[in-house]
Amino acid sequence: MENPFNKINQPLKEVPAELKSKVMHDIAMAKLLMDLAELFSYNLGHIIDSVSNSRKE
């Protein structure tokens, strides 16, 4: 069996352009979905803080 750690010190290989563009597109879509979820969800920490502050007054 070959030791996979021997490959660590070898120079990196260039990633194919189509694979790189697909990965970047997937990351952009995931970021967009996270931003939309944050936009339409409640920030529970802010809600609890505002309710507790309004009760103190």
Number of domain units: 1
Largest pleated sheet:
none
Oligomer: single chain
Tell me the helix content: 55-70%
Number of helices: 2
Helix- and strand-based class? mainly alpha
Question: What are the defining features of this structure?
Answer:
57 residues, mainly alpha, 2 helices, 0% strand, elongated
Give a written overview of the molecule:
With 57 residues, the protein is an all-alpha fold. The chain has one domain. The chain is built from 2 helices and no strands. The longest helix has 24 residues, at 17-40. The chain is elongated. The N and C termini lie far apart (71 Å). The model has no long low-confidence stretch (mean pLDDT 87).
Short structural description:
With 57 residues, the protein is mostly helical.
Explain the layout of strands and helices.
Blueprint: H1 17-40, H2 44-56
